[in-house]
Structures are given as C-alpha cells and as structure tokens.
C-alpha cells in the first residue's frame, strides 16, 4: 500500500466521522424540538381539560340529572363550586368531571362539614 492510499483511507474515515457527527447532531436537535412540542401539547391538553371542567361546573345545576332545584343553587366557583339552598338543608356542592379529584382545600372543607365545624354568623355593618 502506498502512502496515497493510506491518506485517502484516513480522509474517507474522517469524512464518514464528520457525516455521522452532522447527522447525529441534526437528529438530536430534531428530537429535542419534538420533546418540547410534545410537552407543550400535553400542557395545552391539561389546560383545555381544566377549562372544560370549569365551564361545565356552571352548567351542571341545569342538567336533568341534577337532583335539586337549580334555582336555589348559587355558584361560587372557588374553593367549592356552589351552595344549594333547600327548604330543610344547605348543601355545599363540588362538581367533578372525568378523573379530577378534590383539592386539599376542598377535602379540608369537607372534613369541617363532617365534623360539624360549619356555622352561621350574622354580622351587622355599622356605616
């Protein structure tokens, strides 16, 4: 083998290494961009699901399946969805859709109700 062939082989190997480096870098960058896009899509999906749930909460009392008189329901929105005022009881109501669960604050409110820690106070404003 003469020296020209050795240099040519080295040159071919270097060229192949360079091509592999460029291709790897290109697909690595593309992969990172796809990961960012997937993350954004997941975030948008969660946001849309939350918005759907919030909008739905306002309409649940109007559904046929709502067991009370919807005219006596007052929407609050946060930390619970609303209060149902019946003739013989007052009910704190939280609506949930799909797989959503109560927040820690909502669970705490439920616990206060269950432990008879809910009361009525009359406060008179002196203006």
Shape descriptor reads rod-shaped
Give average pLDDT, whole number.
Answer: 90
State the helix count.
2
Strand content: 5-15%
Helix content: 40-55%
The largest pleated sheet is described as: 3 strands, antiparallel
- Identify the strand order in the major beta sheet: 1-2-3
Task: Report the C-alpha radius of gyration, rounded.
Answer: 32 Å
Structurally, the number of domains stands at: 1
Low-pLDDT sequence parts: none
Give me the secondary-structure category: mainly alpha
Number of strands: 3
Q: For the terminal residues, how far apart are their CA atoms?
A: 106 Å
* Helix and strand pattern: HEEEH
Textual characterization of the structure:
The chain is mainly alpha-helical. The chain has one domain (1-117). It has helices at 3-59, 104-114; strands spanning 73-75, 82-85, 90-93. The longest helix is centred in the first third of the chain and has 57 residues, at 3-59.
Q: Secondary-structure blueprint of this entry?
A:
Layout: H1 3-59, E1 73-75, E2 82-85, E3 90-93, H2 104-114
Write out key terms for the chains shown.
single chain, 127 residues, mainly alpha, three-stranded antiparallel β-sheet, 54% helix, rod-shaped
In short:
The protein has about 130 residues and is mainly α.
């Amino acid at each position: 083998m003469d020296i020209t062939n050795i240099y040519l082989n080295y040159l071919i190997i270097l060229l192949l290494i360079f091509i592999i480096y460029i291709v790897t870098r290109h697909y690595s960058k593309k992969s990172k961009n796809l990961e960012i896009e997937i993350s954004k899509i997941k975030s948008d999906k969660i946001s849309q699901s939350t918005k759907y749930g919030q909008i739905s909460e306002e309409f649940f009392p109007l559904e046929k399946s709502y067991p009370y008189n919807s005219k006596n329901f007052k929407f609050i929105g946060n930390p619970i969805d609303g209060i149902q005022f019946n003739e013989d009881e007052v009910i704190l109501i939280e609506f949930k859709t799909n797989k959503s669960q109560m927040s820690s604050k909502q669970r705490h409110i439920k616990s206060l109700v269950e432990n008879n820690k809910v009361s009525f106070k009359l406060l008179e404003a002196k203006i």
